[in-house]
Amino acid sequence: MSKKQNPWLPLFLTNFLSVLNDNVIKYLVIFVGVGWISTEHQPYVVPIASAMLVIPFILFSPLAGRFAKIYEKKKIMVWGKLAEIPIMLVAIVGFILQSLPIVMTAVLLMGLQSTMFSPSKYGLIRDIRGNDGISFGTGMMEMLTFVGVLLGTMLSGVLADYLEVDYNISMLSAILLSVALLGWIMSKLIKADESPVIESTNDTLNPIFFIWKQFRISKHYPGVNDAILGLSLFWLIGATIQYGITDHARYILGQDNQNTGIIMSVAAIGIAFGAILTGWMSGKRVHLGYVVRKYRFRY
């Protein structure tokens, strides 16, 4: 790769395109799939669709972490993005048949796919630019993640209104498959000086034991558990707000899918700017001072 080429770009775009497809599928389920079932069951669509993306992270993160140690991280990214193409075909079949279970299955598979290459994509940050690039790379990764959430939410709102007028999924199919294919191409362009793989590891694959073990290890590094707790609370609040906005905008304010998507995207804009600001302020160092620790728990 020449010096004029940005070594970060393939990794950032690979992650961005994956998040984009995740959110297009998820919100199309919320905006369109909700109409395929009876009224009394509609309020459960939002939390179930969100859970389909999150459950794989809870159950399979230990396995994903092991894979990132014993296999080359770039290969995991490439195979993960390749798997996204048939997953999109499953989603398209679900929309053709207007089958909520099939589309929910696609959302679940997307959650599993994202889980399996998540440790690898963050591990590649250091492999691309060393320790000096961790703060910048992580900040930009988070920023582009929420840009993907923003655009995916807005795009799904536009597509949902289009489908309500003319239920022709050719445009939807073209977008989903094109994004998946482009993401796979970007993953193959990643250039990184990876550390040697580990032939074997004794890490547990039990998610409960894994969480407990990592918690105990993190106690020896000041600020890590505080950051984990803060991040967990952040996602809890975000999921709660997301659920509330979806129902309130539709059933109380009477907004259409496009406007509901725009309202839900506003939070992503703030988070994206916050990620950029943190990466810029951190420079080449990881600053634990950015983690609020005044009321730190004593473990």
Looking at this protein, list some descriptive labels:
mainly alpha, 0% strand, 299 residues, globular, disordered C terminus
Structure description:
The chain has 299 residues and is an all-alpha fold. The protein has 9 helices and no strands. It has helices at residues 9-31, 45-70, 73-97, 100-129, 134-165, 170-188, 207-218, 224-252, 257-282. Helix 1 (9-31) runs antiparallel to helix 2, helix 4 runs antiparallel to helix 5 and helix 8 runs antiparallel to helix 9. The model is unreliable at 294-299 (pLDDT under 50). The termini are far apart. The radius of gyration is 20 Å and the shape is globular. The longest helix is centred in the middle third of the chain and has 32 residues, at 134-165. It has a single domain (9-194, 203-290), classed as Growth Hormone, Chain: A (Up-down Bundle).
Tell me the layout of helices and strands.
Elements: H1 9-31, H2 45-70, H3 73-97, H4 100-129, H5 134-165, H6 170-188, H7 207-218, H8 224-252, H9 257-282
Calculate the mean pLDDT score and round it. 81
Rg, Å, rounded: 20 Å
State the name of the first-level CATH class: Mainly Alpha
Low-confidence stretches: 294-299
| Total of helices | 9
How many separate structural domains? 1
CATH topology: Growth Hormone, Chain: A
Number of E-state strands: 0
Shape: globular
CATH architecture: Up-down Bundle
Short note summarizing the structure:
The chain is mainly α and 299 residues long.
